[in-house]
Amino acid sequence: MTTFVLLTITGLGLGAMYFLVASGLSLIYGLMGVLNFAHGAFITFGAYAGWWISTKVGGSVEGQLLVGAAFAMLVGAVLAAVVELVFIRPLYRRPVEQVLVTVGLALALGALVYGIWGADAKFYPVPDWMLDTTTILGANIPNDRFVEIAVAAVVLVGLISLLRFTRIGLVIRAGVENRAMVTALGIDVRKTFTFVFALGGAVAALAGVLSGVYFGTVDPTRGTTLLIFAFIVVVIGGFGSIGGSAVAAVAVGLVQQYANYYAADWLDWSGAGDVAVMLLLASVLLLRPEGLAPKVAH
Amino acid sequence: MTDAPALAVSDLHVHLGESHVLQGITFAVSRGRVTALLGRNGVGKTTTLRALLGLVPRSRGHVSLGEEDVTKLRTHEIVRRGIGYVPEDRDVFAGLTVEENLRLAERGGAGRYELVYELFPELRERGGQKAGTLSGGQQQMVAIGRALLNENALLLVDEPTKGLAPFLVSEVAAALERAAGLATILLVEQNLGVVQRVAEDVVVLDGGRVVHEGGAKELFAQPERVRQLLGVHGGAA
Hints:
The complex is a heterodimer.
Chain A: H1 2-32, H2 39-56, H3 61-88, H4 95-117, E1 122-123, H5 128-131, E2 133-136, E3 139-142, H6 143-165, H7 167-183, H8 189-215, E4 217-218, H9 222-237, H10 242-267, H11 272-287
Antiparallel strand pairs in A: 1-4, 2-3
Helix pairs in contact in A: 1-6, 1-7, 1-8, 1-9, 1-10, 2-3, 2-4, 2-8, 2-9, 3-8, 6-7, 6-8, 9-10, 9-11, 10-11
Chain B: E1 7-16, E2 19-29, E3 34-38, H1 45-53, E4 60-65, E5 68-69, H2 75-79, E6 83-86, H3 98-105, H4 113-119, H5 121-125, H6 136-149, E7 154-158, H7 166-180, E8 184-188, H8 192-198, E9 201-206, E10 209-215, H9 216-220, H10 223-230
Parallel strand pairs in B: 3-8, 3-9, 6-7, 7-8
Antiparallel strand pairs in B: 1-2, 1-4, 4-5, 9-10
């Protein structure tokens, strides 16, 4: 039971990061039809920006981490907005070229990270209390897992509130369904595209910071690793659906954790988590190819 | 008040893939009147409306609203000049409520909700219902309501009675008559009864070209000419 509780909360913490990455990715694809392979770079740059600024400011570790998160989100938003304005916008009617550009950007930005910060992992500023554990049903849970889950929950509520209660949220929800009709109502949907890209970049960067807390370090491959699972979450959750992404992220995080532990324990098979996630993806694609919540932003 | 027509289209060409759908159409829509754009299936009526808004790329030609050439403007900029668009397949946002569909269309914070609810009282009652769960007729009310919500000078209305039950056709025709008192209308409509009821002018397309332009009464007074141009006889709404 203790192991199960530990695995569950750790899986939720992992799912929280997947959700943060997937939510932006999902909105970007749902609204604009852009399959953004450069999204991983927003995670990596966010993680490094958060780490870099935390080494420059004084004060408590908690303060450094908060400043790091805020700065990372700013960097992620600006980077994503620039990518949309400069590289994606000229290619809205050319989806193949768009995918190639985002792949090229992912490679170029990845190389830039290596160039600036090197290949060695950097230790993240993590407050001691986050490294401590809290006992729940006999399981000693690292406190950072609760932080990751709480941050993802706040972002989930924030995004849903944005979509439901604001004018731009209304435009996003409508645009996910039929963006041509949105423009035919006199709405400049391009501004919304830039906003959603920036929002996705900010949230991805926040995921980068949280991944630094979760793993204790950051390295240049961080974004790519998280992006693969985020894409899976988006496909399972349904493109354009924040709620679907949240459910799918939790499912992927839990399945990965359970499979990793129990397959190793019972079958002496390590690395089963990734295989289990692929099986989950295949099952959803076979049984419900449109995802859990198809093409409706909510 | 300018003497220029509400809408003027000059030598408009549109290619969709390999198909040369519009082959240099030229026509004008007089201010304050209802002009029906007619023609057999597939002659390019819907493409014409979409091209006017820039929803499909134009290969050549000019579009003017009043005295302003809007050819180079983007879709949302053209619409903001005062156009309401009712698309062929309604294109309501299924995941949004009726009220949200209307609110999305509102420009400048002065939506004429009372007018819309007066024309279609059902929309007030169903304000909180998802548009995707409405019947076809109710969705058409939402689509027309969106176009009437703002003080648009020109309405582009594409087959508003398509697929509707006869009693709803009459209701939509009545709404169009009311709208005609508020704006200039360019109407694409297959139901010639509705056309005879609301249209004052007609433009007939065939093979991607304008083959007839004139008064509606004059055309429908010549059944043989109607049959020749449209392949059908006129009927009552």
